[in-house]
Amino acid sequence: MKARIVLLAAVLTIGFCLPLQAAENIKLGVVTKPGSAQNVVADKFKELLEAKSNGDWTVTIYDSGVLGNETEMLQQIQMNTLHIGIITGGPFDTFTPIVRVINYPFLFKDNAQADEILDGPLGQEILDGLEPMGFKGLCFSENGFRNLTNSKRAVKTPEDLKGLKIRVMNSALHKTIWRALGANPTPMAWPIYTELQQGVIDGQENPLWVMEVYKFYEIQKYMTMTRHVYSPHIDVASLKWWRNLDAKDQALIAECMKGAAKFQRKDNRDKDAARIKLLQEKGMQIEMHPDVDAFRQKVASLAGSDMFKDPAVHDLLVKMLEAVK
């Protein structure tokens, strides 16, 4: 009897000395540096998930492209060596044509319309369409409406683009758009400051926050508010990893990512007016009212092009164009 009591005491002692179960850690990758739109989402997601899970989940953020460019990070997500990425919509083009729909030029008239569509059933179709490629689409945060900058001359009409070498993402659609507009599109991975500074490329196109955070006002004199593409980030997880989570954890992670995305979209938009003022103060010449109709006419035929020949992609584009009328 005494031996049993001693054995029980030993077991209890060992049990109390065992370490607590380690928190589950999520590896999250972004290509941009702190302060960027992707990083705002990542930081807020980390804050929300760690708080709501009482520390049961932790998030390690790998930023500034330490894991590679966005295409390489998407490959890591497919292989389940990276759990989550905040990825610009364009690079998904090399994995599935379904994302071309949200990068269609001049699709959304404003932020409210973009939110209505992307947070609704049509946006969910796009997220669901990523699963065959090994991605779990969680939600959309944003880059924002893209605008043109260059170091050569003011641009008001498509004719002013002739001969300009413009950096674009690694996206067949983005190359097609800028070729149709009359520029010389040059795919190039991020970052691109040195290439702009050295004149390897004349210009680039990105939302306003990029001009501020990456100090493009130092090397790009002209900006044109073309707002030619609304550029979302697609916040995605490894489908293989996701399917191994229990339903409760899936729901919590999805809730926190959606909360982070909504926070970031508002934060990004609230700062745009101040960004324009800052860029002007830094010496950028900003064309606030380009001939948008002329730009739009140059790309009007894209809906019937090979970019959207896949029946499922074409059908979704038709539904999207109808929804934004």
From TrEMBL:
Among the GO biological process terms of this entry, one is: transmembrane transport
Alphabetized, the UniProt keywords read: Signal
The UniProt entry, under CDD domains, shows: PBP2_TRAP_YiaO_like
> Which cellular component appears as one GO term in the record?
outer membrane-bounded periplasmic space
Signal peptide span: 1-22
Protein name according to UniProt: TRAP-type C4-dicarboxylate transport system, DctP subunit
Signal keyword on record: yes
| Keyword Signal applies | yes
- Name the Gene3D superfamilies on file: Bacterial extracellular solute-binding protein, family 7 (3.40.190.170)
* GO terms assigned for molecular function: carbohydrate binding
The record's annotation in InterPro entries points to: DctP_fam, TRAP_DctP, TRAP_DctP_sf
Transmembrane ranges, per UniProt, are none
